[in-house]
Each structure stands twice: as structure tokens, then as C-alpha cells.
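Journal club prep, notes for RB
We'll compare a predicted complex against what the paper describes. Inputs for the protoporphyrin IX containing FE case:
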Amino acid sequence: MALSGIFLMVFLVQHLAINLTSLIPDNGYTFNKISHFMGYNPVVQFILQPILMLGVCFHFTMGIFLEYQNRRARKSKYVFHKTRSSWISKNMILSGLVVLAFLALHFYDFWVPEMDYKYVSKLIPAEDRYYHELQEKFHNSTRTVIYCISFVLLGLHLNHGLASSFQSVGVTTSSQKKLKLIANIYSISIAIGFTVVAVFHYFSH
Ligand code: HEM
């Protein structure tokens, strides 16, 4: 669970980095170039993408399974006394399910049309299509709001997930405070970064 989480956190950094190139004022040139490379490079398409999909499926299947096991293991619900555990650490399954619902919408928005373009309709690769598709999606205010709410929950999920996954694999920093600081910087940067991309394209028409 922890290893797949760390793998997905690395993926998010590269995904955000690519998305941030869509903010460069070059009319989408850089973003289109990178997206085209990612979309047609055989190593990315036939090796990295299937590994990523397996990682995503493994992470949420294990998350749901472990939650089910935990609930079964305790006869009565926990009574939370004044513990130091935060709301988000007790509700990782909830934030995880919101991210999963977001992913379903996200795949419907971007991944499914791309698969259709390449493998079903078999259209000629038009290198300049990615930027326009991105802008078109975020012209819809409902979609932009749903995305931004999901990014807040993703940030909370990552905040607790990073600290706990590092502990699970035995990576301990000299102080708990340092790990918490790294988790805060990472999760806030990811949530704000994706939000900036969505909001930028919403207002750029
Ligand atoms: C503003 C925010 C985001 C934008 C604009 C965006 C955009 C995109 C685009 C254009 C694709 C490519 C589809 C394709 O050509 O195959 C994609 C794929 C994907 N996105 Fe996002 N994304 C965003 C946020 C996220 C977040 C927060 C997550 C995870 C929680 C995520 C997970 C994925 C996954 C797993 C894929 C499939 C990767 C693949 O095609 O290999 N995205 N996204």
C-alpha cells in the first residue's frame, strides 16, 4: 500500500510538471510537444502507462480491502478519546474515494477521448490538439469547480499519506516534525499547482 502510494506521488510530480508547461505563454507549443511525446512514445504508452494503471488499481483496491478488514476486526467502533490523530488520518478512505471518483471523471474527460482518437477512430496524429482540448475542458465552470474541490481532498489525502507511507517503509527522518514539514510542502504544492492549472485555463478564454 505504502509503496504504490509513493509510486503514485512520484507520478503526480511529473504530471503536474507537464501540466504547468501549459501556462507558458507560447500558445501551447511546449505543452503540445511534451503531450505528443508522452502520447506516442512506445515506452511510455506500452510500458509506463500499463504500470501506472496497475499501480492506481492496486492502490485503491488495497485501500478498500484494508478498510473492510479493519472494520471487521473491531467489534465496536473506535471511541476517539482526546488523541492526537487528525480528522484526515481517520478518514483516509473518504478522501481516497473522492479522489477515485475524480479519477473516473478525469479519465472520461481526457483519457477516454485520447484512446478513442488513437486506437478506435485512428485519426491522424495532430500535434497541436492537446492544448486546445485542455482549454476547452476548463471552459466549463461545473467541471472546474469539481476539479478544484477534488484537489483540496487530494491534498489532504497526500498530506497524511506521505508521512504514513514513509514511516511504513522504514524511512524515518531525525524528527517527526521534519517529515510533517516535507508532507506539508509536498501536499500543498500539488494541490495548489493543479488548482492553478485548472483556474488559469478557466479564465483564459
Ligand atoms: C488541472 C489538473 C489536471 C489536468 C489538466 C490533467 C490533464 C491530463 C491529461 C491531458 C491527461 C492525458 C490523457 C492522455 O492523453 O492519455 C491526463 C492523464 C491522467 N491524469 Fe491528469 N490532469 C490533472 C490532474 C490529475 C490528478 C490530480 C490526477 C491524480 C489524482 C491525475 C491523474 C491522471 C492519470 C492517472 C492519467 C492517465 C495517465 C496516462 O494517460 O498515462 N490527473 N491528465
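Talking point for the session: The two ends are 41 Å apart (CA to CA).
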